[in-house]
From TrEMBL:
Substrate binds at S63, N113, E157, N164, Y188, Y240, V258. Homotetramer. GO terms for molecular function: glutaminase activity. GO terms for biological process: glutamate biosynthetic process; L-glutamine catabolic process. Belongs to the glutaminase family. This is Glutaminase. It catalyses: L-glutamine + H2O = L-glutamate + NH4(+). HAMAP family: Glutaminase. NCBIfam families: Gln_ase, PRK00971.1-1, PRK00971.1-2. It comes from Antarcticibacterium flavum. It holds the Pfam family Glutaminase. PANTHER family: GLUTAMINASE. Its EC number is 3.5.1.2.
Length: 304
């Protein structure tokens, strides 16, 4: 398969496409991002890298980070984790308070904001320095010590993050939050501010395509069972209330973020990341969704 030719075709076809969405503006720093940025990187392993456009420029990965924190929490708690967060698609916006009320404080899944905040609470409870430990985890699986938080983004999120404070306070009132509110939301805002490129994300996510092992070294990071669970959650819940559409159009487990990034994996085949900041009405990258649909259509490879 000539993946570079496939990616070049995607770039050529989509670079001239009219895009009707908008850049995320509810986080002031994200509103400053150039809407014309567009990059993609596919990592096949063993030195096989294919890319186009702005694939090495770092951006705020936002909710893509929830896959990393979930992985860490699963290592710490195992199956006990699911007593505090469910594994069902939400069908509602990622920051819904209404659904949390219906569910009596148990979030639908770990990828909506409420679920990710419970994961943060678990990590705050079990780690001495969760921000440091998250950085170390991501740097390790990416094999790149340059990964950092974007502190401007974190501060910007904190300045407007009232709904996330509300979610934590509501779950604390219902007994599903164990720590004080401030360290949880501080960790959450920092994890979302992680700055990574498409190339770095594709490398980091290869463990989910490779049965939990780092491809270059063979080191085992996660068990096969945990990878199976995480990939299943990415397939069913990785795009909030557009997860069904992504499965229908693309057919790969993946995770999006409102910074315009999307990462997807094809088990035993590749990991791929795409970035375009313009979001559709569901909060997913409009060009990113289209690029990944073209990738699986042109290659004829999906998990289905």
């Amino acid at each position: 398969m000539d993946y570079q030719k496939v990616l070049d075709t995607i770039h050529e076809e989509l670079s001239h496409r009219d895009v009707y969405g908008k850049v995320a503006s509810y986080i002031p720093e994200l509103a400053k991002v150039d809407p014309k940025k567009f990059g993609m990187h596919l990592y096949k392993g063993k030195g096989e890298h294919y890319s186009f456009g702005d694939s090495i420029e770092k951006f705020s990965i936002q909710s893509i980070s929830k896959v990393f924190t979930l992985s860490m929490a699963m290592q710490l708690l195992g199956e006990d984790l699911w007593d505090r967060v469910d594994v069902e698609p939400s069908g509602d916006p990622f920051n819904s308070l209404t659904q949390l009320e219906y569910e009596k404080g148990i979030p639908r899944n770990p990828f909506i904001n409420a679920g990710a905040l419970v994961i943060c609470d678990i990590l705050v409870s079990n780690l001495d320095d969760p921000k440091k430990d998250l950085l170390e985890f991501v740097r390790k699986i990416c094999d790149n010590d340059s990964i950092e938080y974007d502190h401007k983004i974190a501060a910007s999120e904190k300045s407007t993050g009232y709904r996330n404070y509300a979610l934590v306070n509501y779950m604390k009132a219902l007994g599903n939050i164990k720590n004080e509110v401030e360290p949880i939301v501080d960790f959450y805002f920092h994890q979302c501010s992680l700055a990574m490129s498409c190339e770095e994300l594709a490398k980091a996510f290869m463990i989910f395509a490779n049965n939990g092992k780092m491809l270059e070294t063979g080191e085992k990071i996660l068990s096969k069972t945990k990878v199976k669970r995480i990939n299943a959650l990415m397939q069913t819940c990785g795009f909030y209330d557009e997860a069904g559409e992504f499965s229908f159009e693309v057919g790969l487990p993946g995770k999006s973020g409102v910074g315009g990034g999307i990462v997807a994996i094809h088990p035993a085949q590749y990991s791929v990341a795409v970035w375009s900041p313009i979001l559709n009405e569901k909060g997913n990258s409009e060009l990113g969704m289209a690029a990944l649909e073209k990738l699986t259509t042109m290659t004829g490879l999906s998990i289905f």
